[in-house]
Amino acid sequence: FFSPEFQVAPETKAVMKWLRSIPFVLSASLHGGELVVTYPYDYSRHPMEEKMFSPTPDEKMFKMLAKAYADAHPVISDRSELRCGGNFVKRGGIINGAEWYSFTGGMADFNYLHTNCFEITVEVGCEKFPLEEELFTIWHENRDALLNYMEMVHRGIKGIVSDKFGNPIKNARISVRGIQHDVTTGN
């Protein structure tokens, strides 16, 4: 995931350790500077290609998660191409991260590759550093979308993998036919 020359900051190492210690399954990273929802992979499989579609084996799930957020957001779901983020209207307000712009070391890619957590990135507004008086509006634009996204945690298969005595099995590998990405059971 990280190239050998890539220096990992202590706080990044701490977050990586934390993510591996708690079995999170859903996450969102909030950014500013655009109005769109992105999903992994953020790093193109072809580093020489910028803006190249780079899907995960769980592409359909990630699109569904991103759409759950985008469709519940009053501005992202607005069909006007003249507004902030309007260049993503024809895509439904979502895009594969690497197709938008490729970068290495992203949290969503790390979560997908090294934990059981599916993470999207939400660009909450076109201003990178909004003024304090704009935060209330940004919160209200994103509140219902965040709640809708959090409800997605109830989608999919849930259960306990146990031995013949009913004891949970830690780190059991779970495979789904047709998706070349396994997950493991938690503690």
From TrEMBL:
One of its GO terms (biological process) is peptide metabolic process. Residues 1-153 form the Peptidase M14 domain. Keywords: Carboxypeptidase, Glycoprotein, Hydrolase, Metal-binding, Metalloprotease, Protease, Zinc. PROSITE patterns: CARBOXYPEPT_ZN_2, PEPTIDASE_M14. It comes from the Eukaryota. GO terms for molecular function: metallocarboxypeptidase activity; zinc ion binding. Its cofactor is Zn(2+). Pfam families: Peptidase_M14. One of its GO terms (cellular component) is extracellular space. The active site is at E123. InterPro entries: CarboxyPept-like_regulatory, CARBOXYPEPT_ZN_2, Peptidase_M14, Peptidase_M14_domain. Belongs to the peptidase M14 family. This is CBPZ Carboxypeptidase. It comes from Nycticryphes semicollaris.
